[in-house]
Amino acid sequence: MANTSHGIGGLTFDPKKRTRPPELNVLAALVLIIVAFEVLGRLFIGDSFLFNTRDNVDTLFNEQRLQIIILQVAIVGIIALGVTQVIITGGIDLSSGSIVGVTAMVTMSFAQVATVNGNPNPKAIFGPEWMDLPVIVPLVVGLACGLFAGLVNGLLIAYTKIPPFIATLGMMVAARGAAKWWSKGNPISFPTESYATIGKGMTPVVIFIVLAVLFHLIMTQTKYGKHCYAIGSNEPAARMSGINVDGHKVLVYTIAGALAALAAVVLSSKNLTAQAGMGVMYELDAIAMAVIGGVSLQGGRGSIIGTCLGALIFGVIISGFTFLKLDAYYQEMVKGVIIVGAVVLDQWRQTKRGRG
Amino acid sequence: MKKTLIAAGIAALMTTTAMAEGIGVSMAKFDDNFLTVLRNGIQAQADAAGLSVQIEDAQDDVAKQLDQINNFIASGVDAIIVNPVDTSATQAMSDAAAAANVPLVYVNRQPVNVDTLPDNQAFVASNESESSRQGFIEQCNQWAAAGKTDVAVYVMQGQLSNQAAVQRTQNYYDVIEAGECKVKVNVIDQQTANWSRDEAQSLMTNWLSTGAAFDGVLANNDEMALGAIQAMKAAGIDMASVIVSGVDATQDALASMQAGELDITVFQNAAAQGGGALDAAVKLAAGEAVDQKVYVPFELVTPANIADYLAKN
């Protein structure tokens, strides 16, 4: 099937006639925010946000800051990749933060070392025969957790026809309960050396970028991606044109669950601990990243690139406010304004396009 | 005669059922390291005394906690232990328990009405104004011992809506103002990392990206201190050149101290608080008088005495 004849509702898709991609607006917003911090920094604290002003290192940019901007959003970013696919199909996933919690707990239990500083591991969950396992064991267990939770979400939504909001809300509550139940609320710490490398340094960023590229290709180049957009744009039409809508939904939620599990592995490895409260509110941050990046909650529109830009906006804001030495209160208030503002702008763009 | 017998019978019946109900406990949240140790302290003490306790999770929700207390009262428990979600929302809980004449013990977090508690209510905790104070004074001593006179520090706060975070941060400034710190302390920046290790890692890395020289980090709890340490290690900073202090003496923190990274923490005896709360509740239920404020002291932990604390939390 040629690319040019593949369009929704039988319309011919002509790349030349495409309007400016919405990602460009997000990119413009990102640049604008960075410039704002740069100017404010120079005016009020006499330091540069982006550029290196130190004598001891010889680089143009403040590399440490550039790194943390992306590092601090990489983990939620991984979740946002899955959430983006879910939202594009017209659904929503509220359970990802709780899946992170339960997966981190279960995974870390299989990644513990037997001795800490010569003493037996004080946080041991299982006996010594289940410790010092090769890193593949916790990885597989963790992914299985996420796949299972995602599969349950998908089956509920596709076959009981309950709204995704309700199904994933149920999973959000249940998975958080499971996370607390697993070790009766006790944190689980002291992972093996090999498990600790997964989240070490900039590895979370590398994992995030690799996954982003992979899912960008999947969403733009494969049947899976096209079906996501088709279902989100017009579900009855997608069904009538022979797409296995139910099966596809199960797949989408399962992938989202697996990505949340992967985020949990990276998070627990980066922090060298798993706690039942991990990932609280991550689902909302992930949804916000997607929405800021131009993913429409009505479904059918958005892209992985947009979500990545949305994640970067988040990171820039967090670092920018610390850079300006402003309190966390303002940080949250501005975050709220940006989330709502992004959707308002998106609505305006929609109505304008509708009229034109 | 018949009436008296029936009344006595009913009274006996009621007391026996009431005794069988045991003690209701409402914790602010289950998924918190410290509160879990405290909760286990209550459970252990109850098991030792052969009492049944029913422990509920208020999930950081003030309204849910009040509902739980009312449910405990309705099911006729002998006494209630509350670890308040919000220390300013305790008046309604005291009122509800007082109206039903059920003894109530607050644990760990100081209720706003602590000075006007009815006779059969009490408060068991450690005095927060002592918490970070001990650790910070020790930190000052270590800087002085290292020959420093002027130090630059970062302050990591817990959740801003939490009384302990406010108090622990205030303690630093109180020590500085009272001249109890042997060196001159200059706070470069003060931010919240919401008690969280992950947020503390990001915050510390953001601070490191400013390139400002610093001599130490004051963290409101151990989790944040560990996050700061992980970020500093990732940036290649020699942990011997900075002094980091936390509060709680968690297992993770002690392991980090053994590895020569964390320098100072303060042990808040969670298990003793839990056990103390249960004792107070049992005594109040039996009609005995107890001190209305029971303070379990904080204990300073450094590499010198770490061995005493390895098995405590």
List the helices and strands and how they pair.
The complex is a heterodimer of chains A (356) and B (313).
Chain A: H1 22-45, H2 63-88, H3 96-109, E1 115-116, E2 119-120, H4 136-159, H5 164-182, E3 188-189, H6 193-196, H7 203-221, H8 223-233, H9 235-240, H10 245-271, E4 273-274, H11 282-292, H12 304-323, H13 328-355
Antiparallel strand pairs in A: 1-2, 3-4
Helix pairs in contact in A: 1-12, 2-7, 2-8, 2-10, 2-11, 2-12, 3-4, 3-5, 3-10, 4-5, 4-10, 7-8, 8-10, 11-12, 11-13, 12-13
Chain B: H1 2-21, E1 23-27, H2 33-49, E2 53-57, H3 62-74, E3 79-82, H4 91-99, E4 104-107, E5 121-125, H5 131-145, E6 150-157, H6 163-177, E7 184-192, H7 197-208, E8 216-219, H8 222-234, E9 243-245, H9 251-258, E10 265-268, H10 270-285, E11 293-295, E12 298-301
Q: Give Rg of chain B in angstroms.
A: 22 Å
Biggest sheet descriptor of chain A: 2 strands, antiparallel
What separation lies between the terminal Cα atoms of chain A?
30 Å
Q: What is the share of helical residues of chain B?
A: 40-55%
Helix content of chain A: 55-70%
CATH architecture of chain A: Orthogonal Bundle
Approximately how much beta-strand content do the residues of chain A carry? under 5%
**Which segments of chain B are poorly predicted (pLDDT under 50) over 5 or more consecutive residues?**
12-20
Q: What is the succession of H and E elements of chain B?
A: HEHEHEHEEHEHEHEHEHEHEE
How many domain units of chain A?
Answer: 1
Query: CATH topology of chain A, what is it called?
Result: ABC transporter involved in vitamin B12 uptake, BtuC
SSE-based structural type of chain A: mainly alpha
What is the CATH fold-level name of the largest domain in chain B? Rossmann fold
> What is the topology, as strand order, of the major beta sheet of chain B?
2-1-3-4-5-11
Largest β sheet strand count, sense and barrel closure of chain B: 6 strands, parallel
